[in-house]
């Protein structure tokens, strides 16, 4: 294998680590991937690469929440068949996930081209500041609502937060967790609902991106680098989400505020 190929593989592994680490935490994975790509001299990796790495993060999240997903799926079907009150809470939670998915789903389809064309380092920096301010405002808020007491209105408002996160530099997990906590959800429910919302949106992106992936002209040449990025993203997403779960339990979101301010300032100064 040529040295150039080895260098590319190493760079792709680094990009995968960045994507995997930043996807679960409230600092904008897309913004950080763009920053890392710029620093490594890779430029924009395109939609195909984004779909690939997002799929890796999705698989990690599916694995971590596999028990919840199985319970929600089975109990929802049981409620539809039997109307047994015991299963109603899980059925309602699935409905809330559907409701929360609608805003981002619609805006993603309608504004995809506009969003992709508006990316810049300055925009990412400004949106990191917005994310940091929002995190600071809810840093001490402790909600009391759980899965059984949240409402359809709560899920829609959180879904609007996910729609706002289509803007480059706005963290998806950050926007949904901030919105969830602002509506009064407790930390555990806010985190779970945030990543349950990620699943259908990410799956939708994979479905919409299959054609682009199959039409990629350099699939053969990029097979090894892309595989390396996929694996590194998958592994890092798994560990990063577990780490972030601990952060949420301790209520230490304010530290991400500091991080967003520092990175946003560095972007404005050096780019």
UniProtKB/TrEMBL annotation:
<feature type="transmembrane region" description="Helical">
    <location>
        <begin position="47"/>
        <end position="65"/>
    </location>
</feature>
<feature type="transmembrane region" description="Helical">
    <location>
        <begin position="195"/>
        <end position="214"/>
    </location>
</feature>
<protein>
    <recommendedName>
        <fullName>Undecaprenyl-diphosphatase</fullName>
        <ecNumber>3.6.1.27</ecNumber>
    </recommendedName>
</protein>
<comment type="function">
    <text>Catalyzes the dephosphorylation of undecaprenyl diphosphate (UPP). Confers resistance to bacitracin.</text>
</comment>
<feature type="transmembrane region" description="Helical">
    <location>
        <begin position="118"/>
        <end position="138"/>
    </location>
</feature>
<feature type="transmembrane region" description="Helical">
    <location>
        <begin position="220"/>
        <end position="241"/>
    </location>
</feature>
<keyword id="KW-0046">Antibiotic resistance</keyword>
<comment type="similarity">
    <text>Belongs to the UppP family.</text>
</comment>
<keyword id="KW-1133">Transmembrane helix</keyword>
<keyword id="KW-0573">Peptidoglycan synthesis</keyword>
<dbReference type="InterPro" id="IPR003824">
    <property type="entry name" value="UppP"/>
</dbReference>
<dbReference type="Pfam" id="PF02673">
    <property type="entry name" value="BacA"/>
</dbReference>
<keyword id="KW-0812">Transmembrane</keyword>
<keyword id="KW-0378">Hydrolase</keyword>
<keyword id="KW-1003">Cell membrane</keyword>
<feature type="transmembrane region" description="Helical">
    <location>
        <begin position="253"/>
        <end position="270"/>
    </location>
</feature>
<feature type="transmembrane region" description="Helical">
    <location>
        <begin position="93"/>
        <end position="112"/>
    </location>
</feature>
<keyword id="KW-0472">Membrane</keyword>
<keyword id="KW-0133">Cell shape</keyword>
<keyword id="KW-0961">Cell wall biogenesis/degradation</keyword>
<feature type="transmembrane region" description="Helical">
    <location>
        <begin position="7"/>
        <end position="27"/>
    </location>
</feature>
């Amino acid at each position: 294998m040529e040295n150039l190929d080895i260098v590319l593989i190493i760079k792709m592994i680094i990009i995968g680590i960045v994507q995997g680490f930043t996807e679960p935490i409230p600092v904008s994975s897309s913004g950080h991937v763009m920053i890392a790509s710029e620093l490594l001299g890779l430029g924009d990796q395109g939609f195909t690469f984004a779909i690939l790495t997002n799929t890796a993060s999705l698989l990690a999240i599916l694995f971590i929440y596999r028990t919840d997903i199985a319970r929600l799926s089975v109990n929802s079907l049981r409620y539809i068949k039997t109307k047994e009150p015991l299963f109603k809470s899980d059925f309602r939670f699935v409905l809330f996930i559907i409701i929360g998915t609608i805003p981002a789903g619609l805006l993603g389809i309608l504004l995809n081209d506009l969003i992709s064309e508006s990316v810049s380092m300055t925009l990412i920096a400004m949106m990191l500041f917005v994310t940091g301010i929002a995190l600071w405002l809810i840093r001490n808020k402790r909600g009391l609502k759980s899965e059984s007491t949240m409402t359809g209105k709560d899920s829609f408002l959180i879904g609007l937060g996910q729609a706002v996160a289509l803007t480059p530099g706005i963290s998806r997990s950050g926007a949904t967790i901030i919105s969830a906590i602002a509506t009064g959800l407790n930390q555990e429910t806010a985190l779970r609902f945030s990543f349950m919302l990620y699943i259908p949106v990410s799956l939708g992106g994979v479905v919409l991106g299959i054609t682009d992936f199959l039409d990629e002209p350099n699939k053969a040449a990029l097979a090894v680098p892309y595989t390396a990025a996929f694996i590194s993203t998958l592994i890092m997403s798994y560990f990063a989400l577990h780490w972030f779960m601990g952060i949420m339990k301790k209520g230490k979101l304010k530290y991400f505020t500091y991080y967003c301010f520092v990175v946003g300032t560095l972007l404005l100064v050096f780019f």
